[in-house]
Specification:
mainly alpha, transmembrane, membrane, DUF6480
Length: about 80
């Protein structure tokens, strides 16, 4: 009984595609190289969302007032 050998890269056509090194899965020890390096950052404050909405609403109101004023001035 003979053992079949795995096909070489030239047999698979990898040489014609320019591939030099066969792709291999990442070893388990190298999988997460940044684990444990960075510190946990504090959660962002929730107070900015209402302030941002109020500011956006104020700008929209000012633009609408300006546009209405321009229409009234043309009439």
């Amino acid at each position: 009984m003979t053992t079949s050998h795995p096909p070489t890269w030239s047999e698979l056509g990898a040489a014609s595609r320019g591939r030099k090194v066969p792709p291999v899965p990442t070893p388990p020890g190298e999988g997460s190289t940044t684990a444990g390096i960075s510190q946990h950052e504090p959660t962002a404050s929730k107070a900015w969302a209402p302030v941002a909405l109020v500011l956006i609403a104020a700008v929209v109101v000012l633009v609408v007032v300006g546009l209405v004023g321009m229409v009234v001035a043309l009439a």
